[in-house]
Amino acid sequence: MTATETSKPEGTDETEQFEAARRVLELEADAILALARSLDDRFVAALDILMAVSGRVIVTGMGKSGHIARKIAATLASTGTPSHYVHPGEASHGDLGMIAKGDAVIALSNSGNTRELNDILEYTRRFSIPLIAITAKSPSIMSEMADVALILPAVPEGCPMGLAPTTSTTASLALGDALAVALLERRGFGKSDFRVLHPGGQIGSSLQRVSDLMHAGAEIPLAPKDTSMSESIIKMTEKRFGCVGVVDDGGQLIGVITDGDLRRHMGDNLFSRPATEIMTAAPRTIRPQALAAEALAVMNESSITSLFVVEDGAPVGILHIHDCLRAGIR
Questions:
Q1: How many domains does the chain have?
Q2: Tens of pLDDT along 188-227?
Q3: Same domain as 181, residue 214
Q4: Which of 7, 48, 80, 108 shows the smallest number of beta carbons within 10 Å?
């Protein structure tokens, strides 16, 4: 070996690394598929318990299972099921007081015999608090004590020594997601509910409604149907949306005049003609309760920059494409 050469540590061959990675991913994928096939009445029984909770769902676990438990608690809370994580060690030193009548507990332990969970398990039995176990071992202390035990499939860990929690934690996480989404659907938790719990970031932006962004009242550029084009153009210029809505005697939107309409009719005694002769009839509109993302899609599809917001045929607002972009709608 020359001075410029370095030795490769054993096991660093790229082919071997890819093979190791694929083995782990395939094992974890197989575990989730096996879990999906194994679901039975116990899963429904667990949902029944969680649906009946009048308080909160407490999720607990130790070590790697604790990390998964935290994520499950966060997912439940963000999808309409009030939930939080309780650390087993802290529970034994006073945090058992965070678990109350009306709550339910989901406990995670691959072995089902994690001694740090014993105080929480006994507490649920003493005070008749429903207990759902997620474990790979049955029988085990936890599966025997639980009201419902959800048993993970018997699949090997991705670690070549079979020791590091990999496959088991992935399956536990997937099962937690399955519980959260099944509860979401059973409750009828919809986009409007989701937005209340996710006001920030891209999720909050994507769930904004047209009514949140639209211009209303005196800001809406409107003209009666018998208005001359000279007056209509003044209205367009004042409101700066590049268009004006034409309404009938009952206040119903019957057409829209845009900059494009002006260009198409320029020179045809335009200023003396009534708005109804120049307008585009039956224009594209949007509901106030529609998602702003839907309005943006309509504007992009129709190659327009403004969209009238209509309720029962009457204009209640106007939305410009820049309103959507400023709000982070993409």
A1: 2
A2: 876 665 655 555 555 566 678 899 999 999 999 999 999 9
A3: no
A4: 7
